């Protein structure tokens, strides 16, 4: 099992040199309706660079993400928006479903010409929506961040049974809890009420499908609040509300323990913040979680791109990748290794793009000249390769490089090929 509960802050990566523009809020007309969006970094976004899409919780407007949004904008393009009927987006005549919410996001991305790949981040109920989107677009999603997700254990039947197993009157408590949720969530605008009713109906009819959705196996991080704020519910439950919430949190931890055992691409961060309040209490922690997922496994990103993109597209991808990915994650040794791996798949032009990038970034390394030479030889460009082999021998002589003899052998072989007219 890959996962252990992570405590405290996630590692802070070195910031890239890319500087993003100020955020922009605008209204986008789509099919006779208007959707309010907030974006940053779209104009500076590079080819095939992920964009982070933020999905709010039930009844929430895009403002709920503001503290997190501003930090993400420092290192990535980012989008938040008001779903139809919420915030300043116009209402829909139809009652919402998971499917219609996802279709609205699809239409928004198409209208704004925001292409994949996407990193999806959801808050509470918003996690069901990002999973629905990812299930429908598995090849377009590169990572997922879940903030206090609503899990299968919160279906009323399962939650009632769990509470009863732990010595409480589960049926009574769940009934009171749902009454409180219904009162607090539906006593608002029509759009808020419609979405809240959908959410509560899913729980009451035991249709929560978090664990059964066939989402892509991408880098994913779950952030779970470990504290509770029982004050709003005081007097609403017949038993101790603190004990109720403690058991609810423990049930989520147990669920995630089992789920992540089967899905090693997931990690879990147990936050010291309050459940369902993390966007306000722990914005830096969440932004760092997004950064961790965004920068996860660059080697895999490069190999996937090499097999999907044309040589010309891949060359642009690599050049842009080095402009926004921290250099500490793109070491000379790793890039060199990936280049030779691509050559084994006959991806010689893509390998040459990696060798060229290494040469530009490490002009004093003899090894990058030798590798670039080998890449050129593989493409039949021996005349261009020989000067690079000579440079590798020159730089590798003093101090003597561990592969100095190999550099000389490649030079001799290249010169012989030239002499033979190959």
UniProtKB/TrEMBL annotation:
Q: Which residues form a coiled coil?
A: none
The TPR repeat ranges on this chain: 332-365, 366-399
Q: Name one GO molecular function term.
A: hydrolase activity
Show the InterPro entries listed in the entry. Answer: AB_hydrolase_1 (IPR000073), AB_hydrolase_fold (IPR029058), PPR_rpt (IPR002885), TPR-like_helical_dom_sf (IPR011990), TPR_rpt (IPR019734)
- Kindly indicate where the leader peptide sits in this chain: 1-21
What Pfam families does this protein's entry cite? Abhydrolase_1 (PF00561)
Q: Where is the AB hydrolase-1 domain?
A: 50-153
Q: Which Gene3D superfamilies match?
A: alpha/beta hydrolase, Tetratricopeptide repeat domain
Give UniProt keywords alphabetically.
Answer: Hydrolase, Signal, TPR repeat
Give yes or no: UniProt keyword Signal. yes
> Under which name does UniProt file this protein?
Alpha/beta hydrolase fold
From what organism does this protein derive?
Answer: Algoriphagus winogradskyi
User: Which lineage do the record's taxonomy fields give for this organism?
Assistant: Bacteria, Pseudomonadati, Bacteroidota, Cytophagia, Cytophagales
């Amino acid at each position: 099992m890959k996962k252990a509960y992570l405590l405290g802050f996630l590692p802070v990566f070195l910031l890239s040199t890319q500087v993003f523009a100020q955020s922009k809020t605008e209204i986008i007309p789509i099919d006779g309706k208007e959707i309010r969006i907030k974006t940053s970094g779209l104009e500076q976004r590079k080819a095939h660079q992920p964009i982070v899409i933020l999905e709010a919780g039930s009844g929430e407007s895009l403002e709920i993400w503001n503290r997190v949004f501003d930090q993400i904008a420092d290192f990535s393009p980012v989008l938040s928006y008001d779903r139809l009927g919420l915030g300043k987006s116009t209402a829909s005549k139809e009652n919402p479903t998971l499917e219609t919410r996802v279709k609205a996001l699809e239409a928004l991305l198409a209208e704004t010409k925001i292409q994949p790949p996407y990193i999806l981040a959801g808050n509470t109920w918003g996690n069901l929506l990002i999973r629905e989107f990812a299930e429908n677009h598995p090849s377009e999603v590169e990572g997922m961040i879940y903030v206090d997700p609503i899990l299968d254990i919160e279906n009323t039947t399962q939650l009632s049974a769990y509470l009863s197993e732990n010595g409480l009157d589960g049926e009574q408590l769940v009934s009171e809890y749902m009454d409180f949720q219904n009162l607090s969530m539906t006593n608002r605008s029509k759009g808020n009420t419609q979405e809240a009713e959908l959410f509560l109906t899913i729980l009451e009819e035991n249709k929560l499908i978090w664990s059964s959705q066939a989402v892509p196996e991408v880098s994913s991080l779950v952030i779970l609040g470990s504290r509770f704020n029982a004050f709003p519910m005081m007097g609403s439950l017949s038993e101790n509300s603190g004990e109720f919430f403690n058991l609810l949190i423990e049930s989520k931890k147990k669920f995630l323990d089992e789920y992540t055992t089967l899905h090693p691409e997931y990690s879990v961060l147990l936050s010291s913040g309050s459940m369902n309040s993390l966007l306000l209490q722990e914005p830096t922690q969440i932004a760092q979680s997004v950064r961790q997922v965004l920068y996860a496994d660059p080697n895999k990103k490069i190999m996937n791109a090499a097999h999907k993109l044309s040589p010309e597209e891949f060359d642009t991808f690599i050049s842009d990748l080095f402009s926004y990915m921290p250099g500490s994650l793109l070491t000379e040794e790793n890039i060199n290794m990936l280049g030779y791996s691509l050559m084994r798949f006959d991806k010689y032009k893509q390998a040459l793009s990696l060798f060229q990038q290494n040469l530009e970034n490490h002009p004093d390394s003899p090894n990058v000249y030798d590798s670039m030479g080998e890449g050129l030889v593989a493409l039949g460009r021996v005349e261009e390769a020989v000067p690079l082999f000579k440079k590798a021998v020159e730089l590798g002589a003093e101090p003597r490089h561990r592969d100095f003899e190999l550099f000389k052998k490649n030079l001799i072989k290249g010169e012989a090929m030239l002499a033979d007219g190959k």
